[in-house]
Amino acid sequence: MSSPLRIALIGAGNMGQQHYRHLKSLTEAILCAVADPGSQAAALAEEWDVAYFADHCQMLEQARPDAVIVANPNNLHVQTALDCLAAGVPVLLEKPVGVNLDEARELVAVSKATGVPVLVGHHRRHNPLIARAHELVHGGALGRLTTVTALWQLRKPDSYFETPWRREAGAGMLLTNLIHDLDLLRHLCGEVVQVQAVTSNAIRGFANEDNAAVLLQFDNGALGSMTGSDGVAAPWSWELGSGENPVYPRQADQPCYLLAGTGGALSIPQLKRWHYTEVDGGWHQVLASTQEPVTADEALRLQLQHFVRVARREVEPLVSAADAARTLALVEAIRQAAETGRACAPSVIEG
Ligand SMILES: NC(=O)c1ccc[n+]([C@@H]2O[C@H](COP(=O)([O-])OP(=O)(O)OC[C@H]3O[C@@H](n4cnc5c(N)ncnc54)[C@H](O)[C@@H]3O)[C@@H](O)[C@H]2O)c1
C-alpha cells in the first residue's frame, strides 16, 4: 500500500476546518501543513500538530506537500491555485472556481498546459444520492426530460449578515448558494443554453439579492425554473432536505428539485419516482410511485477520497476547473439577465 498523501491546507477558516475534520478520518491522506495569515491559524496548526505558515508560497516551497486544499476567500482562489500549479501541486479548490470568467479561463488554461489537476469543491456531486439521480436521469428512467423545478428557499438569521462582506455586491446567494444548485442542475439535466431572471433585494435592502426567480432553457429542450430566497421561513432547499450537513435540522419529506419527463418523474433528495404502469397511461390512471432507500453520505469525505485519487493521477476530476467555470458562466448569465431584463446565454468555456 502506498504511503498517505501529504496534503496542506490553505485557508483554515470555517470550510478549511470542515475539510480537516474529514481528512483526519482518512487513512490514505494526512495533513502536513497549514497556510493562513489569520489570527487563529497558528494555534490551529499547533493543535493539529502540523507546520504553520502565514504565506502559502513559502509553505509550498518548504513543506513540499503532495497536494493542497484551497479554502481561502473567493477573490484569492485563482491566484492561489495558480501558485500551486506552478509548483506542480494538485489542488482541491473550494467553489466558486473564481470571481470572474477571465480568471477562471486562465486557471483552466494553466491546468491544461501543466497537466496538474484541479478539482473544484462542488461537493454535492459526490453524494451517492446525486450519483443515483444522475444514473436514473441519464439511464432514461424519466423518458425525455421535459420540466425541471428547483427550489432554494430558507431563512438565514440576521446574525449571518453581521460579517460585512456578506452584505456586499457580488457576495449574495447567487454566488454563495445557488451556484451549488445550478451546478447540480447542469450535472443532472445538461447544459443550459439561455436564461431569463429577476432578482430583488426587497427583504433586507443590502447590495446583493435576497430573492430570485430564474427561467432556464436546457440544450436538450427541457425547460426549468428556479426560485431562491434566503429570507423566507420555508423548508425547501438541498441543505434542509438532504440531511447532508447535520448543522441544518432536516425536513426529510420536502423536495428541492422536481424533474419530470415523458416517462416518469423524480423528486430529489427523496429519490421518489412516479410512472404509469399502463401503456399510454394518463391522468385518469393511477400514477405509481416508488422510493429508493439511498441515504446522503458525507459528500465532503467522499470528495476528499476522490481528490486523493485525482492527485495520484488515478482518475480525472469529477468537477474540473473548466466544468466549474461553466457553472460560474451560468451564474454570470443569470446576473446579466437580471440586470438587463433580457434573455442571456452563458459564455462558452473551452477545455
Ligand atoms: N463547499 C461549500 O459548501 C462551501 C461552504 C462554505 C464556504 N465555502 C467556500 O470556502 C471558502 C472559505 O469560506 P469560509 O466560510 O471558510 O470563510 P472563512 O472566512 O471562515 O475562512 C477563510 C480563511 O481564509 C484565510 N485567509 C485569508 N487570506 C488568506 C491568504 N492570503 N492565504 C491563506 N488563507 C487566507 C482567513 O484567515 C480564514 O481563516 C470560500 O471560497 C467559500 O466560498 C464552500
Protein architecture, described:
- It is a single chain.
- This protein has 351 residues and is α/β, with parallel strands linked by helices.
- The protein folds into two domains: 5-124 and 300-320, Rossmann fold (3-Layer(aba) Sandwich), CATH 3.40.50; 128-296, Dihydrodipicolinate Reductase, domain 2.
- It is built from ten helices and 15 strands.
- It has helices at 14-23, 41-48, 56-63, 77-86, 101-114, 128-138, 173-189, 238-242, 299-311, 321-340, and strands spanning 5-10, 29-35, 51-53, 67-70, 91-93, 118-120, 145-155, 192-200, 211-218, 223-229, 231-236, 257-261, 264-268, 272-276, 287-291.
- Strands 7, 8, 9, 10, 11, 12, 13, 14 and 15 form a nine-stranded mixed beta sheet that branches. Strands 3-2-1-4-5-6 form a six-stranded parallel beta sheet, with helices on both faces.
- Helix 4 links the parallel strand 4 and strand 5 (91-93).
- Helix 4 (77-86) packs parallel to helix 5.
- The model has no long low-confidence stretch (mean pLDDT 96).
- Bound molecules: nicotinamide-adenine-dinucleotide.
- Nicotinamide-adenine-dinucleotide binds at residues 10-16, 35-38, 41, 56, 71-74, 76, 94-95, 121, 123.
- Nicotinamide-adenine-dinucleotide binds next to helix 1.
List the helices and strands and how they pair.
Elements: E1 5-10, H1 14-23, E2 29-35, H2 41-48, E3 51-53, H3 56-63, E4 67-70, H4 77-86, E5 91-93, H5 101-114, E6 118-120, H6 128-138, E7 145-155, H7 173-189, E8 192-200, E9 211-218, E10 223-229, E11 231-236, H8 238-242, E12 257-261, E13 264-268, E14 272-276, E15 287-291, H9 299-311, H10 321-340
Helix pairs in contact: 4-5, 5-10, 6-7, 7-10
The structure holds nicotinamide-adenine-dinucleotide (NAD).
